[in-house]
Amino acid sequence: MEILATILVVINVLIFFYFVIVNLSYITLIIFSYVQTKRSNKESSIFQLSGLFDTRLYKSISILAPAYNEEASIIESTEALLHLEFADYEIIVVNDGSKDKTLEKLIRHFKLKKIDRYIPKSIETEPIKAVYGSHRYPNLFVVDKENGRKADALNAGINVSRKDLICAVDSDTLLEPTVLQQMLMAFVADPTTVAVGGVVRVANGCRFELGEVSEVKVPKSTIGRIQAVEYLRAFLFGRTGWDYFDSLLIISGAFGVFDRESVINVGGYLHDTVGEDMELVVRLHRHYRDKGEKYRVRFLPEPVCWTEVPESWSTLGKQRNRWQRGLADTLWRHRKMMFNPKYGRLGFLAMPFFLFVELLSPIIELAGYLILTVSFFMGVINIQFALLFLTAAILLGMILSVLSVLMEELTFRRYDRMRDVAILILYAFLENLGYRQIHAWWRFKGLIDFFKGNKSWGEMTRSGTFSR
Hints:
Layout: H1 2-50, E1 61-67, H2 74-82, E2 89-96, H3 102-110, E3 113-115, E4 128-133, E5 140-145, H4 149-160, E6 165-169, E7 173-175, H5 179-189, E8 193-202, E9 207-209, E10 212-215, H6 222-244, E11 255-259, H7 260-265, H8 276-291, E12 296-307, H9 313-333, H10 344-359, H11 361-377, H12 383-411, H13 418-452
Parallel strand pairs: 1-2, 1-6, 2-5, 8-12
Antiparallel strand pairs: 3-4, 4-5, 6-11, 7-12, 8-11, 9-10
Helix pairs in contact: 1-6, 1-11, 1-12, 6-12, 6-13, 8-9, 9-10, 9-13, 11-13, 12-13
């Protein structure tokens, strides 16, 4: 019995220090994110003052928008893409075998007709049935193809595209009008740049007019407000921090710009994974590191796209399960990068962080709560240690979330009303009391499903935020 008690004490202490180290690492990342945000804002102002974005000297862009059963928001999101402020770009909406009226609505609204367009098979995809175009919208093309899931739809879009860069977006997202100009800053500043990510913000609760956000407000629902805090923490002050260390591993599938030839050279998006966005970025890193060529993968905090997040617990749980499976799959595929000197900070900093903090944290967190409870009722630990444990596990998480909201207020201040900021701060506290534990369970189940070989995508029901 004494041996068991000793083992439980040691495990509790180790988990306690794990929580402290993890949360302090996140807080450190936020601090570096703040520094990087200020630096990025200064660079952006210099480019805008120089007038470089008013010229036609820089690369053209093909926007790829895969769509599967997106009839609720496809017209509004496509209209918004047509009103972007950029000199040379085309829009390629890829209807990936939708079962609803996504294609019919596109054809009817934009007066589309079938056209002949040469499509090189740079990347293998499911068969393309037809390509549609319109004299009224000469830079809009709609591809109708057999269902092959998101990665296959993006690859088909890459084959159809004709521009220098590709901008991968979700069909249910809305880009701000100047977003392409802002993203181009990274390619202009450093010609070796092969990929750039931008901020994804929660659209639920906001008002939209003519394809633009007219009023930024927090979501009305509890689940939406919690996700608003999550997105601030993950995008604005998580990935910006990794950009500071030049070790960004994720560019969201909802919004990213890539060098087209670089993506083709590495084989495009993978079909047999549900984390095709992260996997592509890691594969680009690995490709250029293996070849010894200079390159950059960047993240910019100024360019923003708005996305509709799940409004049901079931849908959100499936989404987070899928994200966890995608993370596990990517780390497993590229496990040779881990602690490999060839990959520098990627191998010794970024990859281990995503393994021990992002991937394994749900196991350690859930085990921690269980072991703490058992130890307390067995009398192995006292109330003081139990409270100290919960402080490390929960209070530090609250501080991290509140810091993310306050940093947003200190930098971009997209929420004009103090009431909205107060609501976000409140939910930054509340998300750690119940939601965080549920979220850990979803991710834990995601790991189990990964080991079972589950690669299903699942469907997400849209309410048509942009059409309101």
